[in-house]
Amino acid sequence: MTRDARAGMVAATVIIVPVVVGLLYTASASVGLTGLDAHGLSTARLARVSADSQVWRAIAWTLSTATAGALLALTAAVTLASVVRGTSIGDRAARWLAIVPLPIPHVVAASLGLLVLGESGLLARWTAAAGWVSIARHLPAITLDPWGIGFTLTMAWKETPFLAIVAFAVLATRGAQLDEVARTLGAGRWATFRRVTLPVLVRALAPATIAATVFIAGSFEAPIILGPSDPLPLPVLIWERYGDLDLARRGDAYVLILIAFAIGIVGAAAVSWARRWDLDAETR
Amino acid sequence: MWRGDPSINRYVDEWVAPRVREQYGITLNTVPGEGAELVNDLVVQRDAGRARGTVDLIWINGEAFANLRREHLLYGPWASRLPAAALVDSASPIIARDFEQRPDGYESPWGTVEFALIYDSARTPSPPRSYAALADWIRAHPGRFTHDQGFTGLTFLKGLMYARAGGVARFAGGFDSTRYAVGRDSVLAWLARLTPSFWREGRTYPRDVAELERMFANGEVDFAMSNNENDVVTKVRQGILPATARALVLRDGSIANAHYLAIPYNAPNPAGAMVVADFLLSPAAQYEKQRPEVWADGTVLDRTRLPIEWQRRFAELARDPRAVPDDTLRRYAEPEVDPEYSVRLLDDWRTRVRAAPAPHTR
Predict the structure, then answer these.
(1) Chain A partners of B339 at a C-beta cutoff of 8 Å?
(2) B81 — contact with chain A (CB < 8 Å)?
(3) pLDDT digits (tens, 9 = 90+) for B17-49
């Protein structure tokens, strides 16, 4: 084994061991062997969770809002990267401004979302002040809403800088030459964007978009602030079960954590598949 | 302890901590954590065989106490041996029983509170004073009332269950599933009639009481509520609630309970914990805690057992005009019942009301 390979193995072990230990504990707790109110091997927790329609609705809500949020962020990142790709001061300032939200924590982003989009938020107050709606609360409610519109918009805003950074880098390294070739071959601006820039960006951003989907699906602070009480977002449902007044039901949280973990694993597999897809396309 | 209220944190960190350090050389290190979390942490520590834990004194009541006792996770008995325990108002049913459970020396009382609705006297000059009047008010003002999904909302629903069954006495004396089923069905029927007139037609509920308070302060709803009848006084002083906010107790009865301090089975320093618990029961600490500009948390001491000087000071504690008068509080106070009623009612509300489509769309 080379030194690099050994270092890689050590790093991977350091990362993977705590995950495996946690997973083993969670798995054994899911079948009643460890953890709260454990009474020996039983499938009661698995049966109770899989028979609960709240669980399936929670998964559907979390996956659909996370996908929608990531796709919106992808659209915004592609648009930004294509529009402000020059070297002028304005373009550079716009690129810098676009990534400002990057270090904002999820809980702050969610509170901002509530402040702007909430029933008595800035948006409602401004439209009321402008006379578009008679009173602020006549606006359609988009926070704590069953469709998760406020949550999706806030998460899209939060993930856009992450995808925009990747998009800026892609266009700076690969974009210029490809565009030039296309233009030399006689393609117009729109054709260049549609046939060259867009496919390059989408393929290069696919892994990051999938990662953003998993980030959004796994975030707890944002859905607890912006999400509805029905359906409950999956991370909120896990938290609620873990603190259930009935000690016997707290164990159900372990099963839900396994489900969330499975979603993460599928996401990780999809990221590596998307990365190969991008590399294949690039080397072709 | 629960660290969600800045005035409580300030009392513990800035008033209690320096005094126990000065008087007893004890460093009081507060860490966040509440009911369910504490139980889970202690179960995990027990499973992991940790004989020496990390926490010496925990702030609990009701279900958490029941769970901790059942799982044998508390140190004790110790509480009745505290010197200051002699001053406690042991005749009060609210203090002597924690959700009908005998503390048996495994927890020491710290404070008492009573549930109250909060309204804005400028917006709602004549508020409803019974559950029946509240129902009429909700129907007449659609979209202006809701409760939260947490403990405060649960207390509101329990109060509703008692009121509709004709009083808390029906549920006293341990859990009874038949009596519970009747009470629950009556609550569900009331909600089925009224949730269409709730905020957002009862399709969604604020996560916790802090969110409900924010909605009330922003004029999104016309009522907030609190498990502490004096919350309105401290929150107005902090500028969180409008100056015209007032508290009221419903005449059907209002749930009062006490909160307690307990020592985990694996506390590294139980002796230090007992000294702090004793200090917290001292007239000076209880008086400071009850001051409206501090926490406004009711005392657990029997004033007649105090030195005359302290009797006078407690009597002089300025009553804020926003608060509910003492005699009203006492007249309508009703105790908590077996924690199983809370467990079942919350679960039934979550599955049959919150997760169900609103009745008018069914």
Answers:
(1) 245
(2) no
(3) 999 999 999 999 999 888 888 998 998 888 888
CA separation for the pair A155, A114 (Å, rounded): 12
Contacts of A53 in chain B (CB under 8 A): 355
Q: Is the pTM of this model over 0.80?
A: yes
Taking each continuous run of H as one helix and of E as one strand, the counts in chain B are 15, 7
Residue A278 tokens read as 């991008």
- Stated as kind and residue range, the H or E segment containing A169 is helix A149-170
Residues 6+ apart with CB under 8 A from A185: none
As a whole number of angstroms, the distance between CA A9 and CA B121 comes to 67
* A96 C-beta neighbours (distance < 10 Å), count: 10
* β strands within B185-343, DSSP E: 223-226, 245-248, 254-262, 333-334
Number of other residues whose CB lies within 10 A of the CB of residue A109: 20
What does DSSP assign to residue B88? B
Q: Report the Cα A230 to chain-centroid distance in Å.
A: 21
Alpha-carbon distance A49 to A217, whole Å? 19
Q: Which of B206, B346, B354 sits opposite A230 (nearest CB)?
A: B354
Pinpoint the alpha helices (H) of B262-325: 270-280, 283-290, 308-316
Looking at residue B195, its amino acid is T
CB contact under 8 A, A228 and B204: yes
pLDDT in tens, B100-143: 999 999 999 999 999 999 999 999 999 999 999 999 999 999 99
Q: Are B264 and B131 in contact (CB under 8 A)?
A: no
Q: Are B159 and B250 in contact (CB under 8 A)?
A: yes
Strand partners, B262: B58
Give the strand pairing for B333-334 and B116-120. unpaired
CA A44, A46, A48, A51 torsion-angle sign = negative
Q: How many CA atoms lie within 13 A of B67 on its CB side?
A: 25
In this prediction the ipTM stands at 0.87
Of the candidates B203, B244, B245, the residue with the CA atom closest to the CA atom of residue B225:
B245
pLDDT score at B360: 45
Please report, to the nearest 10 degrees, the dihedral formed by the alpha carbons of residues B125, B129, B133, B137 taken in order: 30
Question: Are the C-beta atoms of residues B202 and B358 closer than 8 Å to each other?
Answer: yes
Those residues whose C-beta lies under 8 Å from the C-beta of residue B207, and which sit 6 or more positions away, are: A224, A225, A229, B148, B149, B150
Q: Is A242 within 8 Å of B35 when comparing Cβ atoms? A: no
Rounded distance, CA A105 to CA A108, Å? 5
Q: How far apart are CA B37 and CA B64, in angstroms?
A: 9
Closest CB to A229: pick one of B219, B351, B354: B354
Label each residue of B109-166 as H, E or C. Answer: EEEEEECEEEEECCCCCCCCCCHHHHHHHHHHCCCCCCCCCCHHHHHHHHHHHHHHHC
| Dist CA A265 CA A259 (whole Å) | 10
Percentages (nearest 5) of helix, strand, coil residues in chain A: 75, 0, 25
CA–centroid distance for B54 within its chain? 26
Q: Where are the beta strands (DSSP E) in chain A?
A: none
